[in-house]
Amino acid sequence: MSHANAALTPRHRLIVGRLVVDDGWPISEVAARFQVSWPTVKRWADRYRTGEPMQDRSSRPHHSPNKTNQQTARRCVRLRLRLREGPVQLASRLGIAPSTVHRILTDVHLNRLSHVDRATGEPVRRYEHDHPGSMLHVDVKKLGNIPDGGGWRYVGRRQGDKNRAATPDKPKNKHYDPLMGKAYVHTVIDDHSRVAYAEIHDDETARTATAVLVRAVEWFNARGVTVERVLSDNGGAYRSHLWRDTCAELGIRHKRTRPYRPQTNGKIERFHRTLADGWAYARCYTSEAERRGELDDWLHYYNHHRPHTACGNLPPFSRLINVSGQYS
């Protein structure tokens, strides 16, 4: 098919070739008749003379020595499906440019994940504090405990129920089904650097939440970060007197989000999705203890090695200066 601005259609190109080659018309007269340039008429006349088609030639090169090989493309697709990471993170793993990863994902229609676009009907308002420690975001991510042998997400509902029933030392509900319980991941993330701290507990009480906050503040202080403010939702632990008194002892100003407005604490909500995709549901764990044992290693990868788009495609720890073990 000819391009949108072509003066000659394939049918008229054929007429031009016949007039010049078969009927012996001068090129200048044919060019004046069809209101095109002399080189255009000569080009189509030469192609007609050699028996070439009157269609546009493909602009694709005959050889592409720098083309991404199929093995890398297939690995890119597999990592996208398994890890649900973006082009920047996948490019770091594959050793290629983020634009190349995006092209590969676009070719296989994987450039958008179903849960990426969450339209709220309101303009997106972004903010970022200007130095580490100016604001910490805190929240709790609840996860169902994994039975011995693997959970239903990977082994299926039927086998998952069998694994639940076979897991020892679990209480029963009124239907005599085992209660696996929940894992409460208490997460803390710095607003400026996106450096994350997390602990797993069996509850989300005020005593547990305040103890996590104290240890998180000590952890950030050891890395040269002085915590000034903390932002939380309106959960019971964060409305307690114990939380209020602990913040006062630490010299931290506590702020809460507007009720039913999780977007205000969106940085940690987005971190929870990264946490779920990269650690909690990244692979088939055969027990809850195995999954919990992997959290520290994943947090180290997230803080020290995983490229973050908010940090200029650098790891979060790159925004902390002169920290011991920063480049490990």
List keywords for this structure.
5-stranded mixed beta sheet, IS481-like_transpos, nucleic acid binding, Homeodomain-like_sf, elongated, RNaseH-like_sf, alpha/beta, 328 residues, 5 strands, Nucleotidyltransferase, domain 5
Can you give a write-up of this model?
Residues 143-323 form the Integrase catalytic domain. With 328 residues, the protein is of the alpha/beta class. The protein has 4 domains: 10-49; 70-107; 136-145 and 181-319, Nucleotidyltransferase, domain 5, CATH 3.30.420.10; 147-179, no CATH class. The chain is built from 13 helices and 5 strands. It has helices at 10-22, 27-34, 38-49, 70-83, 87-94, 98-107, 152-155, 157-166, 206-221, 241-250, 266-280, 288-293, 295-304; strands at 136-144, 182-190, 196-201, 229-232, 253-256. A 5-stranded mixed beta sheet has the order 3-2-1-4-5, sandwiched between helices. Strand 2 and strand 3 form a beta hairpin. Helix 1 (10-22) crosses helix 3 and helix 9 packs parallel to helix 10 (241-250). It is elongated, with a radius of gyration of 31 Å.
Overall pLDDT score: 87
Number of strands: 5
Q: Look up the CATH topology of the largest domain.
A: Nucleotidyltransferase, domain 5
What is the percentage of strand-forming residues? 5-15%
Give the class-level CATH name of the largest domain: Alpha Beta
Helix run count:
13
Low-pLDDT sequence parts: 115-123
CATH architecture label of the largest domain: 2-Layer Sandwich
Main sheet attributes: strand count, strand direction, barrel closure: 5 strands, mixed
CATH superfamily grouping of the largest domain: Ribonuclease H-like superfamily/Ribonuclease H
Q: How many distinct domains?
A: 4
Spatial separation of the terminal alpha carbons: 56 Å
